[in-house]
Amino acid sequence: MSGRAQLMWDEAVTGYDFGPDHPMDPVRLALTRKLVDAFELDRAVKVVAAKPAGESTLRLVHREDYVEAVKAASADPAAADASYGLGTLDDPAFAGMHEVSALIAGQSVGAAEAVWRGDVEHAVNFAGGLHHAMPGAASGFCVYNDASLAIARLLELGAERVAYVDVDVHHGDGVQAAFWEDPRVLTISLHEHPATLFPQTGWPQEVGAGAGEGAAVNVALPAGTGDAGWLRAFHAVVPELVADFRPQVLVTQHGADTHFEDPLAHLAVSLDAQRAVQVACHGLAHEHAGGKWVALGGGGYEVVDVVPRSWTHLVAIAAGREIAPETLVPEVWRQEVYARTRQLGPGRMTDGRWPVGWADWEAGYDPADRLDQAVLATRRAVFPLRGLLA
Prior knowledge:
By secondary structure, the chain is α/β, with parallel strands linked by helices. It contains 11 helices and 8 strands.
């Protein structure tokens, strides 16, 4: 390895902007970048701006007619074709949509290429993680599925086993769909139960098909799940499956919308628990994937108080410069927050719940507990298909 970590960043990604009333405010990206800078993490990572994903790369996942529809809507938003999910409430068309979406995708593909080549061990694109986009449609604030494109590029480069772990509050449906029948890609998604949240998929019985049966894994968490349950579910499912799969690269998606302050979902997870899962994913990459780790952002709609801190921790962990939970937020960043949003920024780097406690699955199963029921449903659906004990 010629370096430890790479941060993918081009200021132009903040142009991914659905408008002033849309939940996905690009200020969350700008403020994350400013907080990374305030902690001087640039000294510990190589900051790189990759090229936008080109036509041939986009077509690794997306249909040609869909790419053409995005380009047409990008040139004339008023003419967006809603049959492709464009020009909708979730995915309003805007001028330059194709260009900035391809740029974000390019950062994730560039991250995957750098890690696969061995230029760096870890690469982070917190502007990425747009996991809902389908091969032929935009969905859930996502135009191009950069996570799927990064994985598809790894396969194109010769990877035989790629593990994808998605801890966004919403099901990673687009990535699952892209590799539904592909045994080379293990997709694991922990998300709020589909009965209570978009996209209403991600049931434990969704396990893949054909040669890919057993390579799709879904943990559907009850609304209201907090730190202890979230971490218990993660550790009851993810490490054993990743260890068994032996991936050559680990790709993770770290949507911050599991947080108890997020306005669009119903989990009750703290920044401390989000940080704990980031640390765990970093450890899994080193234990089972030779250190090769591509980490992406995702959802997160508490754009001042939550997202910048969560993803700054992610960058710091990848860089080998972990930020202690009790660390005060730099005042220069809080001033930036007020200047941009007229809001007061948070005072420290987590919610004060460190260390976060959770009960290991091996400690025992409570048949009356909804969280344990959810975990057991996943283990029973998938583990036997992989030759593991449920």
